[in-house]
Amino acid sequence: MSIKLNLSDSSTPLNPTFLYNKWIQYVKDNKTGYFMLPNSLENYLPYIGSAAINLYVFYAIHAKNGEGHSYYSNETIARTLKVTQKTITNWNKTLQDLGLIIRKSRSNSSSDTYMLPLSDFIIDLKSVNNDKNKVINFLEQEGYRNKGIINLYVTSESGKIYKYNLFERTYSVKDFKMIRKILLAKVEVNNNLSKIHTSDELMWFEKNGFYIVWNAKKSDNVSKNRLDLVSQLDSEDKVNAFKRNYQQLNMGRNKK
Fold first, then answer.
1. What is the pLDDT of residues 209-248, one digit of tens each?
2. Which terminus of the chain has a smaller tally of CB atoms within 10 A, N or C?
3. Mean pLDDT along residues 150-165
């Protein structure tokens, strides 16, 4: 049996391709839906109509698989799409304001374009060698706010505790506002929690942190709904509202 050593350099800085890669993997793993664009679609872009979506499709066509990264000058893109460079500049601003891309200038006339996640998702810290601080520093550098930690215990999963660190970034343009949420996830095992028995769907307790106990049904899509559940508790006020509306679990009485 061969052994593959992990010799990756954890000191390598992250860039926005990291977010796109983790998002694409999350979408694939949870089968939430995504699409692929054939490269030949580029031939039709000049005739579809003058809109910023043309530019987004251009970036999608030329992005590296799994990274969402490409680099072109405004001059090259304008020539390809048969519009002015000023139009490309305006479209880039629209796409960036909407949180669809990030553009970073190079020393020459070209710029790196990074496509961004289009939905909320979870990053499993195991996939980054549990280097939580490195990911947190990167998210904060990219404008995400740390909203705190929520622990989730799913009764059907035998002592597993999902420790989620929630991050948010707000994008807005005119009447549009969107809050992108990313959860950093670490799974721990506490066999004492497997002794909890409750008929309520949701309960909570506090012990060195805030814990949600979810008595999930077999029909629940636990993987997807973990994200939906935790991402709603994005402020202290909402956590307090959860505490008011759901029963607190008495740990002493609920162990057998």
1. 899 999 887 777 787 788 889 999 999 999 999 999 999 9
2. N
3. 89
What span, in angstroms and rounded, lies between the C-alpha atoms of 119 and 27?
9
Q: Which run of H or of E encompasses 60?
A: helix 52-62
Please measure the distance between the N-terminal and C-terminal CA atoms of the chain and give it in whole angstroms: 43
On whether residue 111 sits in a domain, the answer given is yes
Q: In the chain, what percentage of residues exceed pLDDT 90?
A: 47
* Structure-model confidence comparison of residues 231 and 176, the more confident one: 231
Same domain, 130 and 68: no
Pair (73, 138) in one structural domain:
no
Burial degree of 47 (CB within 10 A; 0-12, 13-18, 19+): exposed
78 with 137, same domain: the answer is no
The count of residues in the chain is 256
The secondary structure of 21-52 as a DSSP string is: HHHHHHHHHHT-------GGGGGGHHHH-SSH
Q: Of 208, 209, 193, 201, which is closest to residue 246 (Cα–Cα)?
A: 201
The pTM of this model reads 0.82
Long-range contacts of 207-211 (CB under 8 A, 24+ apart): 207/251, 209/149, 209/151, 210/149, 210/150, 210/151, 210/239, 211/151, 211/152, 211/153, 211/161
Instruction: Give the domain range for residue 168.
Output: 121-245
Here the tokens at position 136 are 């947190």
**pLDDT greater than 70 at residue 2:** no
Q: For residue 125, what are the CA distances in angstroms to 57, 80, 120, 134, 163?
A: 31, 40, 16, 10, 10
